[in-house]
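Researcher: I'd like a structural prediction for the single chain below. Treat it as a standalone chain; there are no partners to consider.
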Amino acid sequence: MRRTMVTIAAAAASVSLYVTAAEAESPDLEAAQRMFYNGRYADAASVTTDLCTPDVDALAACELRTSALLFQLRRALGDSPDKEETFTRCEPCAELLATFVAETRRGQQIARARLKVHPQDEATLFFLGKLDLNYVWLQLGTLGRKMGWDEYWEARRSLDKVLLQNPHNVRAKVARAWIDYIVDTKMPRGTRWLLGGGNKKRGLRAVREAATADADRFVRAEAGFALWDMQVRERNIAGALATAAKLVEEFPANPELRRFLDAPPVSQ
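Model: Treating it as a single chain, here is the predicted structure.
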């Protein structure tokens, strides 16, 4: 499944090579990542506007930009059960959605063109999968629309290819763990089968391992926020509080973390 002589330490070091190389060339990308994990999604989206260019080396910025736009939309729409009505009433949401879709399509086109020439390129496979998943989570989760099935399957295949080559790719592990978790917990039994199956326990185990991996700070942060989110969904409030307390040390301006720590939900 993987080159047998590569050590775990070397694999962990390789996880963030593509992203950190881009950061070395662009301090603005690192600044945008800090903004994103501090919950400053509009600022992160703004900073990455000029960084997301029609170039394969810009895929890290494009993925971050779509993530920031996705989280802006999530924050604007809140938890209303009537998602379509809330979207209609949301003044900035139509423009945010149009920008999100345009940036996603551009990033997908760049990645797919690269993969036609280099079909096993690990970084490009990951970014294509992540761009696809951002689109899926927006449509199915944030907007409640039954769209994004082609993107779902492309993401699943892309991430599985990454992990076949490199089982220690932390970002791919986290993204793939979300598929396992959401399919198992949110989809009806028959739909789970049609979507290739899910596994909540495997997803939780993967993000726990990822959150303690020896990796770049923003790679660890992505895993840490995934773990926190899953712990909240599982009503593991004690675990979620411990995870949030660690995250807020590094990202003290994040308002969601602050609110959770100040007024955690009651354990059931």
